[in-house]
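Table 4 source record.
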Amino acid sequence: MAKLWAGRFQKETDLVVNDFNSSIMFDCRLYKEDITGSIAHATMLGKQGIIEEHEAEKIVSGLKEILADIEAGKVEFSLDYEDIHMNVEQLLTERIGDTGKRLHTGRSRNDQVALDMRLYVKKEIAEIIGLILNFMKALCDKSKENLDAVMPGYTHLQRAQPTTFAHYMMAYANMLKRDVMRLDDCLERMDDMPLGSGALASTTYPIDRDFVREQLGFARLTDNSLDGVSDRDYCIELCSDLSILMMHLSRLSEEIISWCSWEFKFVELDDAYSTGSSIMPQKKNPDVCELIRGKTGRVYGSLTTLLTMLKGLPLAYNKDMQEDKEAVFNAIDTVKQCLEVFAPMFSTMTLRKDNMRKAASKGFINATDCADYLTKKGMPFRDAYKTVGRLVSECIKADETLETLTLKDFGAISKMFGPDVYDALDLNTCVRERKVIGGPAPDEVKRQIAKIEKFMEQYEAVEQ
């Protein structure tokens, strides 16, 4: 079977090389973007008089029929035509004859694939942002239901200070907000239309690039034909953004994995989002979270693949760049799969607020509040810090907590302690009084939730 690029070659491609060189097995997913770009290109060729109007119309009609047949599962792609571009062009020529051979006038597969990838990435970024916003909504909903769920906050995995589950989840909501903003920035920065760059040095035909740009919904044209075909910065930026997003999902997954254990028992996952053991009948494993944590490395790998593949490439197009697709596709697929399962898993998760409260009552997480109590009475903070340190030491020796000490015990350490110390040490007080902007006080967390919800509403309004 003759290749579309046959002419110079006197031999058939070796079968092993044919398979090795082919990308149709993975770039077939670009069929819609490829046909959409070809329709815009053919329409422009007709408008500019580069081909006859009736030829352009025949090409567009043929491409639309091919698109419908692909989506109906009636088309089988061939390895003999290497990639999605040549498969579509061959199908078109088989259906409408020599007119189909005019489609490729004034363009190269180099700017064609550059266009296809940009169209595809633009669409996928919008879908991923939608999934992130859906997860952010789940975080907000769960937080509003649990504003009073006091729990210990940790540093160095040691109980540190009192906080609430809602405050904890708003930390992750803010991470996801930044993920949305990063992806939106990437989308804006990559919104340049490369078709018309040709193989590397544009074309001598009087094409109208701006017409094609308008047809395809791009904000701008690429400004240099060499850069237009060789730029994959947006692929790297996308995989970088997705890597950061996966890092955030992995961190929350790690929290949930720990909180599901008997050592914490802060939460319990719904049976629909848990698995069991083949040998231990008591087990209920957080495998979804563990898989998300593991799949994070897969997305990191895509970023590393792109950076490594591109680092030594001279301008303009090189076959190495075929490797961009599997890396980008894999990163996108992984992220979407993780987000699609994380949101419902989180929404159906049960909180064990009593266990959170019990954990918060141990570990002296109100020690800072005790020091602040003395400071507010007039003692310098460093002196208050040492005083409370002595109290904690005495409590550990006597197997007591700060709340169980008698007023006499307090007085033995400092005469500045009064009966009001017990209210100051109460966990509800400790949380309620942390009402500075960003703190865990319920009213302040309500503000944080409202701000996240406003961000989501504004973004969704812009998208609509």
